[in-house]
């Protein structure tokens, strides 16, 4: 047996902890990255078009967004998204803010697959601005998109800082170089959608896992907000994070201590759950659990319901989407999969 395989477990664990808590700073200062991401976010808030804008401004924004998209090596400009965005989120927000708005079947108490708490939070974000005299509704529209772009920019900067300090400055820099020019991020950052909302808090959660692995509850809370208030399917992303944390923490402090800390981290997600269920039940005037309804409808809805109701894309849709959103980096990421598989095998062979 190779001497390399006889390294004490404590020494190996200490090495892992030292890598995860390295004090090397990022290559680019945090405030510079935040300024860049926020600037790009504001551009996307203005130029990543969604429907129902004034006709005159659409022509101007279409031209400008096309120029921006060419700079990003996109095939075409930011596409006009589906009516889901307008009628599922902007209309209910208009109803809460001004007292009138159209309702879709998703908000019917029969289905209850949209959260009133989610749109209510966004209505509160715009409330101070709506009180300004002579402000127009389209001002509120762009203000909310700018606020969302700001939140998304902070989440990107936080994840960049966490990657730089916990894994390596080069990794953090690579993340920013990939995410900032991405056409997908350009469209998603200011979007008023639960999936974009979930993306913000997933990035916050991963950053907390990397920066402060001792405080597990904070990271789990971010994931709970992402999944329970945003898009429930993203809760699957917390599984690998918890698995990695449990592996490292269990070896360093013992399995009993790990289980105790994991049990303590459940309380904050339960508070988030209680708030979501309570607010939505009050809005629907009956007990509802919207995240569960979304999963049941989309996964177990049957042939007359669910994700196949309006058709599905072919299998290569995901590859095409990745290539449009991340260009050459998508190819590099897919090519890295066999490398990641081969490296552990090579290491095992050396240690035999």
TrEMBL record:
GO cellular component terms, A-Z: endoplasmic reticulum membrane
Pathway(s) of this molecule: Protein modification; protein glycosylation
Enzyme Commission number(s) from the entry: 2.4.1.-
One Pfam family hit: Glyco_transf_22
Residue ranges the record marks as coiled coil: none
Topology class, membrane: Multi-pass membrane protein
Gene Ontology molecular function: alpha-1,2-mannosyltransferase activity
Keyword Glycosyltransferase in annotation: yes
Transmembrane segments: 28-50, 110-131, 171-190, 222-247, 259-279, 315-343
PANTHER family given in the database record: ALPHA-1,2-MANNOSYLTRANSFERASE ALG9, GLYCOSYLTRANSFERASE
Protein name: Mannosyltransferase
Organism of provenance: Orbilia oligospora
Gene: ALG9
């Amino acid at each position: 047996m190779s001497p390399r395989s006889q390294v004490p477990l404590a020494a190996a664990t200490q090495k892992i902890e030292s890598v995860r808590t390295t004090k090397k700073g990022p290559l680019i200062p945090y405030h510079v990255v935040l300024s860049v991401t926020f600037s790009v976010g504001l551009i996307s808030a203005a130029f990543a078009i969604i429907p129902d804008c004034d006709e005159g401004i659409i022509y101007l924004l279409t031209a400008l967004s096309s120029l921006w998209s060419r700079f990003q090596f996109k095939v075409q400009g930011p596409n006009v998204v589906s009516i889901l965005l307008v009628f599922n989120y902007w209309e209910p927000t208009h109803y809460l803010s001004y007292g009138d708005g159209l309702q879709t079947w998703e908000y019917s108490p029969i289905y209850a697959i949209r959260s009133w708490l989610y749109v209510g939070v966004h209505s509160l974000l715009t409330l101070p601005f709506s009180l300004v005299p002579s402000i127009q509704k389209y001002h509120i529209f762009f203000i909310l998109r700018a606020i969302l772009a700001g939140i998304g920019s902070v989440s990107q900067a936080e994840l960049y800082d966490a990657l730089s300090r916990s894994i390596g400055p080069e990794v953090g820099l690579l993340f920013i170089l990939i995410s900032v020019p991405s056409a997908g991020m350009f469209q998603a950052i200011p979007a008023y959608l639960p999936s974009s909302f979930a993306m913000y808090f997933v990035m916050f959660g991963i950053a907390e896992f990397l920066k402060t692995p001792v405080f597990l509850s904070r990271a789990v809370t971010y994931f709970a907000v992402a999944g329970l208030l945003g898009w429930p399917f993203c809760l699957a992303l917390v599984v690998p994070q918890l698995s990695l944390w449990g592996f490292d923490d269990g070896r360093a402090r013992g399995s009993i201590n790990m289980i105790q800390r994991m049990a303590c981290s459940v309380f904050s997600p339960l508070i988030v759950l209680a708030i979501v269920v309570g607010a939505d039940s009050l809005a629907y005037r009956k007990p509802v659990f919207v995240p569960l309804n979304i999963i049941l409808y989309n996964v177990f809805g049957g042939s007359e319901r669910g994700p196949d109701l309006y058709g599905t894309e072919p299998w290569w849709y995901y590859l095409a989407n990745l290539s449009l959103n991340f260009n050459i980096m998508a190819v590099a990421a897919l090519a890295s999969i066999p490398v990641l598989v081969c490296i552990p095998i090579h290491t095992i062979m050396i240690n035999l």
